[in-house]
Amino acid sequence: MARYIGPKTKIARRFGEPIFGADKVLSKRNYPPGQHGNNRRRKTSEYGTMLAEKQKARYTYGVLEKQFRNMFEKAARTSGITGEILIQNLESRLDNIVYRLGIAPTRAAARQLVNHRHITVDGKVVGIASYSVVPGQIVGVRERSKSLEVIEAALAGFNHSKYPWLEWDENSKSGKYLHKPERADVPENIKEQLIVELYSK
User: Fold this and answer.
1) What order do you get walking across the sheet with 119-121 strand by strand?
2) For residue 69, pLDDT beyond 90
3) Same fold for the domain at 8-89+188-200 and the one at 93-179?
4) Nearest to 110 by CA among 185, 166, 20, 102
5) Residue 154 buriedness (CB in 10 A; 0-12 / 13-18 / 19+)
6) 0.85 exceeded by pTM
């Protein structure tokens, strides 16, 4: 499965946000990368603003362009507010739910756990990071993987009450996807309406 493997700090500096997790460089160099990044005063066009928002969403959730476009088209075909449905669909990805449950410290680490078959859905091993989890399903750690140091370290002290659409069971190291999240509960700083407007042009 192809994925972005380039410099993450460069992308975070472009958007001025720690979209890949905590990044110490942002506090020192909170301006765009490149030779003239600190001197750039160019005004971004309306199209550029919308494109940047789409790119930020893609990098945040670790989705490639074609995947993202397909997810948008699926959301557009579903009745409701397209932008909110798009965010809900992104939040329903298996790698994202593994991350939200605190099983992995980042989405990239969550994707790796899924790809290496350490994660189960309803008791069955699933190795597809883009697998769409539906409400009622239980995402957990494979029995033989529960003692992995990376998982134990990620879960240590993790606050599972942050995400009300997920219910964590410490004994079984698993979480239930209760319902699709309300947009107000999703902490990501993404203006999804700009993405809708971009694809509507």
Assistant:
1) 124-125, 119-121, 138-141, 174-177, 166-169
2) yes
3) no
4) 102
5) buried
6) no
DSSP 125-146: E---TT-B--TT-EEEE-GGGT
What is the per-residue pLDDT across 128-184, written as a single tens digit (0 to 9) for each? 999 999 999 999 999 999 999 999 999 998 999 999 999 999 999 999 999 999 999
Average pLDDT for 45-60: 93
CATH architecture, domain 93-179:
Roll (3.10)
**Amino acid at site 156:** A
Task: State the number of CA atoms in the 13 A half-sphere of 159 facing the CB.
Answer: 4
Angle separating helix axes 192-200 and 46-61, nearest 10 degrees? 120
Strands 138-141 and 124-125: unpaired
Six-digit token pair at 45? 């066009």
Rounded (5°) CA angle 152-102-108: 95
Task: Give the DSSP letter of residue 31.
Answer: S
Q: pLDDT of 118-143, one tens digit each?
A: 999 999 999 999 999 999 999 999 99
Return d(Cα 128, Cα 134) in angstroms, integer: 15
* DSSP secondary structure code for residue 169 in this structure: E
Residue type, 62: G
Report the CATH number of the 8-89+188-200 domain: 1.10.1050.10
**Does 65 score more than 80 pLDDT?**
yes
pLDDT value for 175: 98
